[in-house]
């Protein structure tokens, strides 16, 4: 079983990953690093035994990790987007399943911090500050239309109720609430916050993907679930850079996988005693060809993190523009945030996918044994890279470069109409 050589909280700069995004970053990250270390300690065992990280997510909830983006006046840490994304890279180094399981929560929090003052924001900022988390239930499979949701709100007597079925409901099994995309009574789309343990809510861990296996990304059904009308948000009220935000969480997760790969590779090579008659040195730790592979992996992780943080700055500008009072400037900032994230997506995923493959070139055949857990890095990276298909992103970027076509802010998947 291979582990990262990083065992105690140390500054990012000292570890060679570069300076944090802001002067405040180390103070923000320091309280969470012991929790990340505890999470990392059991990551391989959880993967081998398919043990869901319920306890580990509980540790983060107790530490109010889910509230770091809330302003301090509302009970959060007031973290900037680059600082927050850097935190996700560190968490993903410990266990990428957990970042993915909390992705829906982070997206909902981003909606809240982009809202103006009012009852909805006050209600939800208080819940988030208290440690509540939200899962995700947006995708519908099978004969679902690309135009809208089958899951819908309707009146039943005096109650507003929700009915429908969702898949890829990542993290909902661990959450207090489920952020659900649905058709409202007026036929328009919206967000419905559903109490996770309400009567009529059924969450099943039937995710059968070969990667990100501990995210509980399975099926959720809603049967006459009573909804508080105050917990319904219209599509018009969602933040406009949401597609870029959800994608950059994937990029942060991939960058964290890259760091985990770098640590695992270095530790395994350092511990290796067996060698080959045709090797370039008596020990792998002195073999220049092996060291070259380890260096390539670490360089890929460094580049993936740097690229991700550069894109995060574009999202920070979009967030600031939302409150700037200039609609044209906000539109441009949103478009550029989506563009920069799209530009980063294929490059970051390629870097980490290659690193997760060549890691085995630095080790012997024993490295492919399941107890080593090294295969999880490729499986997880490949699974994350399959979201929001990469083949479309280079085309979108090229269309912008050649024709000035803005990237799409939102996209759906389903059967086309007509």
Automatic annotation (TrEMBL):
Acyl-CoA dehydrogenase C-terminal domain ranges (all copies): 251-387
Chain intervals with Polar residues compositional bias: 1-14
GO biological process, one term: fatty acid beta-oxidation using acyl-CoA dehydrogenase
Keyword Transferase: no
Gene3D superfamilies assigned to the protein according to its UniProt record, in alphabetical order: Acyl-CoA dehydrogenase/oxidase, N-terminal domain (1.10.540.10), Butyryl-CoA Dehydrogenase, subunit A, domain 2 (2.40.110.10), Butyryl-CoA Dehydrogenase, subunit A, domain 3 (1.20.140.10)
Keywords: Flavoprotein, Monooxygenase, Oxidoreductase
Domain Acyl-CoA oxidase/dehydrogenase middle: 137-225
Pfam family for this entry, one: Acyl-CoA_dh_2
Gene Ontology terms, MF aspect: acyl-CoA dehydrogenase activity; flavin adenine dinucleotide binding; oxidoreductase activity, acting on paired donors, with incorporation or reduction of molecular oxygen, reduced flavin or flavoprotein as one donor, and incorporation of one atom of oxygen
Coiled-coil annotated spans: none
Recorded GO CC terms: cytoplasm
Region (Disordered): 1-20
PANTHER family given in the database record: FLAVIN-DEPENDENT MONOOXYGENASE, OXYGENASE SUBUNIT HSAA, MEDIUM-CHAIN SPECIFIC ACYL-COA DEHYDROGENASE, MITOCHONDRIAL-RELATED
Record protein name field: Monooxygenase
């Amino acid at each position: 079983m291979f582990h990262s050589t990083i065992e105690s909280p140390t500054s990012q700069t000292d570890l060679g990953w570069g300076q944090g995004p802001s002067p405040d970053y180390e103070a923000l990250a320091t309280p969470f690093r012991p929790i990340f270390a505890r999470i990392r300690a059991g990551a391989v065992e959880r993967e081998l035994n398919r043990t869901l990280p319920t306890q580990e997510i509980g540790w983060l909830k107790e530490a109010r990790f889910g509230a770091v983006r809330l302003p301090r006046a509302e009970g959060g840490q007031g973290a900037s987007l680059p600082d927050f994304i850097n935190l996700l890279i560190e968490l993903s180094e410990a266990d990428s399943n957990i970042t993915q399981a909390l992705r829906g929560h982070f997206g909902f929090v981003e909606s809240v911090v982009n809202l103006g003052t009012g009852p909805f924001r006050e209600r939800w900022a208080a819940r988030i500050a208290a440690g509540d988390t939200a899962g995700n239930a947006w995708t519908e499979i099978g004969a679902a239309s690309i135009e809208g949701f089958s899951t819908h709100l309707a009146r039943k007597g005096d109650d507003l109720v929700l009915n429908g079925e969702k898949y890829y409901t990542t993290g909902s099994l661990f959450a207090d609430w489920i952020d659900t995309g649905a058709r409202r009574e007026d036929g328009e789309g919206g967000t419905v916050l559903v109490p996770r343990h309400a009567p009529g809510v059924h969450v099943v861990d039937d995710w059968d993907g070969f990667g990100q296996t501990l995210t509980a990304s399975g099926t959720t059904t809603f049967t006459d679930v009573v909804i508080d009308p105050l917990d319904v948000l219209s599509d018009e009220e969602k933040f406009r850079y949401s597609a870029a935000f959800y994608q950059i969480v994937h990029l942060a997760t991939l960058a964290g996988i890259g760091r985990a790969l770098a640590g695992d590779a270095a530790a395994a090579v350092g511990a290796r005693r067996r060698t080959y008659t045709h090797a370039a040195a008596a020990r792998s730790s002195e073999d220049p060809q092996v060291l070259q592979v380890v260096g390539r992996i670490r360089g890929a992780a460094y580049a993936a993190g740097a690229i991700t943080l550069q894109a995060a700055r574009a999202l920070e500008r979009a967030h600031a523009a939302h409150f700037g009072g200039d609609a044209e400037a906000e539109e441009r900032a949103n478009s550029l945030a989506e563009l920069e994230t799209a530009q980063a997506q294929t490059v970051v995923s390629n870097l980490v996918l290659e690193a997760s493959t060549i890691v085995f070139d630095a080790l012997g055949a024993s490295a492919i044994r399941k107890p080593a857990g090294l295969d999880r890095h490729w499986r997880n990276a490949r699974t994350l890279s399959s979201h929001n298909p990469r083949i479309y992103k280079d085309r979108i970027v090229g269309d912008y470069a050649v024709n000035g076509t803005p990237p799409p802010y939102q996209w759906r998947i389903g059967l086309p109409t007509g």
